[in-house]
Amino acid sequence: YILQLHSNSDKGDGSVKYILTGEGAGTIFIIDDTTGDIHSTKSLDREQKTHYVLHAQAIDRRTNKPLEPESEFIIKVQDINDNAPKFTDGPYIVTVPEMSEMGTSVLQVTATDADDPTYGNSARVVYSILQGQPYFSVDPKTGVIRTALHNMDREAREHYSVVIQAKDMAGQVGGLSGSTTVNITLTDVNDNPPRFPQKHYQLYVPESAQVGSAVGKIKANDADTGSNADMKYTIINGDGSGVFSISTDKETREGILSLKKPLNYEKKKSYTLNIEGANTHLDFRFSHLGPFKDVTMLKIIVGDVDEPPLFTMPSYVMEVYENAKIGTAVGTVLALDPDTANNLVRYFIDHNSEDDMYFTIDASTGTIKTAKIFDREETPWYNITVAAAEIDNPGLVTRVPVGVRILDINDNPPELARDYDVVVCENAKPGQVIQTITATDKDNSANGARFYFSLDEGFSSNPNFTLRDNEDNTASILTKRRRYSRTTQDIYYLPVLISDGGVPPLSSSSTLTIRVCACERDGRVRTCHAEAFLSSAGLSTGALIAILLCVVILLAIVVLFVTLRRSKKEPLIISEEDVRENVVTYDDEGGGEEDTEAFDITALRNPSAAEELKYRRDVHPEVKPVPRHPLSSSLDSIDVQEFIKQRLAEADQDPSVPPYDSLQTYAYEGHRSEAGSISSLDSATTHSDQDYNYLGDWGPEFKKLAELYGEIESERTT
C-alpha cells in the first residue's frame, strides 16, 4: 500500500471512478477505481529509478465525465543500504623501490557505493587493510597505501600481496563491504656489492694454447639485477699481467681470460694474477654499503705439451756461387726439440714449388746441397721451405723459409750496349769524334765494373779510324784522315775489342759498321745512299726536285693526250639491229653524225647479207649508181677485196658523196662454214629456241645473267 486518492465529490455510493496514468501506472502501480487505494506490484530499486510522476483523475462512472481536473503527484523511492562498496579498477599491480623510507606512498585505491550519499551513512566508505601487515598500511579515509617498514630488501623478499577492504555505514556494524588485491613488487637498486665465491682460484692452461684464444672464465656474484649487476673485470697485478688479458661478457657477466703471449712450459710453469670485479653503475645513496668491488687471486698452471721442433732462426739466408758442381754444400739449418725429452729431429724439404726441386737436404744434419748447376744471370735467388719433425712424433712439424742467393762469377764477356749506326761525313777532319760507344756485362759490378776498349789485333794500324778509351766505360771513334768519298768506298768495318776487369778477365770482339754520308756544313747528315751518284755530278737537292717535277708534268700531259684521243674514238651511230662495234676514224673534222650515215656497211660485214643496193639515208643521189651484179648467184665465189672495190667505185661516181677519206674496219670472218658460225655478232637478230630459265637455278652468282636473258626472251615474245 502506498496511498489513497479521494475526491470531494465521492459520496461513497460508488458513482465516482478513479483513474491512474503516468510512469509505471498499471504495471508497477495499480489503483482501486472505487476506493482510490494505490498499491505497488513489485519491489522498487532506488539505484534504478529514484522517483515516478503519476496523474490521477476522478470521473462520473455513469457519464464518464471528469468530476475534477486531473492532478499530478510524485512518488519518491526512499534509499536503504542495499549496495556494498566496489573497487572498479582492481586488482592492482604496482612497484616500489626497495630500501624506500617508511611511509613512502605506493598507490591510492578508490571504492564506489551505489547508495544515496545524501541519505544516512549508506554510501560513507571506510578503508582498512586485511592482508599485508606489517609491511604496508592504508589511510581509512583516502585509501592511500604506504610502506610501513624501513629498508625493505628486494633480495630478501620481492613480491607482496596486499588485500584492502572498503566498508560503508562508516564502518559500523551491519555495513556492507568490498575488497581488492594490490600486488606490490620491490624494484632493485644497487645496494649489493659484487663478491667472488672464492678468494683463490687455480686454472690449468696447456702451453700449446694459441695466442688470442680464451683459456678460462671467472665470475663474481652480485645479488642485484639489471644494470645494477653490471661489472668490469681487470687484472690489477701479478706476474702474468703481460701474458694474459681479461674482458667482460656483458650477457653472462663473466670475466673471459685470454692469452696475449705464447706459453713455454720449459721457461715458466705457472703465473699468478689478481683479478678485480667492480660494479659499473653506482648509487651513492648506498655507498655506505660498499665498497662495490671485490678481488680474488688466480693461479695459472702451464701444462707441458709435446711441441714440434724449433729452428734456431726464424728464417735463413744462404749463398752459393753460380756454376758450382752438383752436391755443393749451401748451408745448414738447425732445429731442436723444446721439450725436456729433447728428441732427435729429422729434416726434409717441402716440394711445393719448382725451387724446392733444385736442392737436397741431409735428413740428420740439416745440410742443404745443390741439385743442379745454377746460372745467376738466369735466376739470382731461390726460395725453399725446410721442415723439421721429431723422429718419435713425425706429426709435429715446423717449417722455416730459406732463401738462397746465387753469387756471381765472371763467366760473361762484355759486349756493346747496343747496335750502333756510325756515320762519317765526307768532309770530316782528322781527329774528329764520330761516335761514342759503351759496353754492358751480364755479370754484376763486382766482376768487371771497369771495361777496356781497344782495336782488334791486326787492325790497330787502321789508316782510316782509331779508337780512344775514355777510361769511364766508354770509348770514342775518331777519324785519322781528311775527306772520305762514297764513290770510292761507302762502308768501313772497324773491329773493336772489349774486356772486363774480372778474375779471370773476359773479352769479346764486335765489329762497327761505319757509313760514309754527305753532310751539311753544320754536320747534319744529308744523304747516305742513292743520291751519291747525282751529288758527284754536281746536282744540288733543288735541281733534283726540279727534274722530278718536270718528269711528272710530262707524264701528266701524255696521259691527258691519250685520254682525249680515246674520247674522240666513239662508235658511229649503229642501227638498232646492229650490235657490233663500228669504228670510224676521220682525218678531218667532217660532218659529224651525218657522215656516219653516208654509207650503209651492213652488207660489208657479211657479204651474204648484201642482197640489194642500199642508198644513203641523208641525201638523194642525182645519178643512179652503177648497177651491181646480183650477189645471190655467186655467194660462194665472192671476194671481199672485189666487194670493197665495187663499193668504192660507186662512191666515186656519186656526186652527192663528199670527198671524205674513210677508213672502215669490217668485222668479216670469211666464208660461212658448213657447221655454221659460232660468232655472237648476229645473235641479236637470230631467233633461238634456247630456254634460259635454268639459269635461275644456278644460285645468287648467276642472278644477273638470268635476269638479262629473261628480259631478252620477254622482248622476243612481245
Describe this structure in words.
Pfam families: CADH_Y-type_LIR, Cadherin. InterPro entries: Cadherin (IPR039808), Cadherin-like_dom (IPR002126), Cadherin-like_sf (IPR015919), Cadherin_CS (IPR020894), Cadherin_Y-type_LIR (IPR000233), Catenin-bd_sf (IPR027397). It is found in: Cell membrane. One of its GO terms (cellular component) is catenin complex. The chain is mainly beta and 718 residues long. Among the domains are: 3-76, Immunoglobulin-like (Sandwich), CATH 2.60.40; 86-187, Immunoglobulin-like; 200-303, Immunoglobulin-like, CATH 2.60.40.60; 310-407, Cadherins (Immunoglobulin-like, Sandwich), CATH 2.60.40; 415-527, Immunoglobulin-like (Sandwich). The chain has 6 helices and 40 strands. The strands form 12 sheets. Strands 31, 33, 36, 37 and 38 form a 5-stranded mixed sheet that branches. Strands 7-13-12-9 form a 4-stranded mixed sheet, with no helix packed on it. β34 and β35 form a beta hairpin. The chain is elongated. It starts with a strand and ends with a helix. Mean pLDDT is 81; it is low at 530-537, 572-581 and 607-636.
